[in-house]
Amino acid sequence: MMRFMFAFFCGYFISVSGSLSQLVTNNSLASPSTLGMDGAAVLFILVSQIILVVFNIDFSLNHLSLILFAGTSLVLFPFVFYKSKVKNIWHQLNMQKVILFGLAFNLMIGALFSVIQFLFMALNFEFPVGLWFGSFKQYDQNFIFIFIIVFMVTQLVLYRLSPKIEVLNLGSSIAQGMGFDVEFIQKFGLYISFILTGIVISYFGVFSFLGLIFPHILRSFRFFKRNMKFEILLGPYFCGAILGVVDQLCYNVTVHGAELPVGMVSSVIGAFVLILLVFKLNLSRT
Amino acid sequence: MHKLTISADDDFWINEKQLLGEIVFTSGELVLIQGENGIGKSSFLQYLKRKQTSLLKGKCIFVDQSRVMPLNDLSFKDAKKVFKPYQFEKLDIYSDYEQYILPYIDKPIGQLSGGQNQMIKIMLGLYLSGDIFFFDEPLQFLDQKNKKLFLELLTSLKKRDKAICIIEHNKKDLAHLIDTCFNLEISGMYLKLGAI
Prior knowledge:
- The complex is a heterodimer.
- By secondary structure, chain A is an all-alpha fold.
- Helix content of chain A is 72%, strand content 0%.
- The longest helix of chain A has 28 residues, at 95-122.
- The radius of gyration of chain A is 19 Å and the shape is globular.
- The model of chain A has no long low-confidence stretch (mean pLDDT 85).
- By secondary structure, chain B is α/β, with parallel strands linked by helices.
- Chain B has a single domain (2-195), classed as Rossmann fold.
- Chain B is built from six helices and nine strands, in the order E-E-E-E-H-E-H-H-H-E-H-E-H-E-E.
- Chain B has helices spanning 41-55, 76-83, 94-98, 114-128, 144-159, 171-174; strands spanning 2-6, 13-14, 17-25, 30-35, 60-63, 132-136, 163-167, 180-187, 190-195.
- In chain B, strands 1, 2, 3, 4, 5, 6, 7, 8 and 9 form a nine-stranded mixed sheet that branches.
- In chain B, a hairpin with a 2-residue loop joins strand 2 (13-14) and strand 3 (17-25).
- Chain B is globular.
- The two termini of chain B are 18 Å apart.
- The mean pLDDT of chain B is 89.
- The chains are: A mainly alpha, B alpha/beta.
- Chain A binds chain B through residues 22-23, 26, 28, 85, 163, 166-167, 169-171, 173-174, 176-179, 215, 219, 224-228, 231, and chain B through 11, 46, 49-50, 52-53, 60-64, 66-75, 78-79, 82-83, 85-86, 108-109, 121, 124, 128.
């Protein structure tokens, strides 16, 4: 039951991250994976592991990673929301280039992960290999309270943000014309997406492309297809349940006693879905 | 009457030139902004959008060139429900013009043609309503029938004391409706906006 709860919360957070990433960028290929958020969160895990080993500290990797991640996020907060009067770079961002950069960044972190893994293993140090493909196999029920608090705060934030998000779905131009501070909503949405991604990855590892797949799964259902508010407020519950069920399947269906990590399944399916989406978008333009 | 003065203090730059000038929006009148391609007419409109609450009194409606492309299968009918809380007033002419988009009112907006998308934007603006209507190249993508409709709409808005500001290259179609023309032109180091 506890394992299912963790999977549900992670699915909820990933779904919110994915939907927010796509909505604020108005790009159906945007997600925590394609925007480099996964890579950034893994970087904190790598740094945490290096700190623990180099300084020989007996501390939970998950907690240290989350502390570093949260600390950096708080430090970055004023810079993210700072509005330059001289040259506003935000307005000039090309989302397709940002997505390419995000994908490249993730690849770079993946390579760095492999190099550090090699060095650690060569030097006989412990290395969290399993974190590259997320799994709920190792969970600590004491962490559930953090997830419950984040879940409740997220719901509150989404409830307040959802009317603006609904208008933003029609385009930043229309939202701006109606007097909304579009830049703030976009930055805030991406910031929440980043925080939720970091929490999931710090504790359970990477679930690549789930943030990309979940919004598209939701939009294939009539109930969510024409109502962005439903996608944002109710859809994540559905996605949380999906991840919980898929995780239970992975737990019960083992390969010679070895459990397939859910993150591995999402990586394979997600990469395939990304290719299909790019193909579909390309066809719709021609 | 809404008088907008842009001075050096406003620190508004377009294409590395500082914009200075004055424009007046009068209820019941149509103002045309013209200028060379690439001079910054649309950028000026984007600036007004961002600063509308501080620069302009009255509710502003903007219909610009960007295409409406929701991520999901939102139709115009669904979009009206989203916009209902933000509706400034119910214009009596709205239902007269809505009938012209009935054939595609339920179709996902992302699947509409350029002309249909343009009509949707115009109708959304009409649905929301306001004191000043800004249109950026509204006639592009419109066929003859919809152009005629839009020109009738402008006449109706003027009769209802709405101020209208249009950026449009094709002055010919609007000639009978224009009350004042403003020109955006380069003047040395500056970009000047002034009445012709």
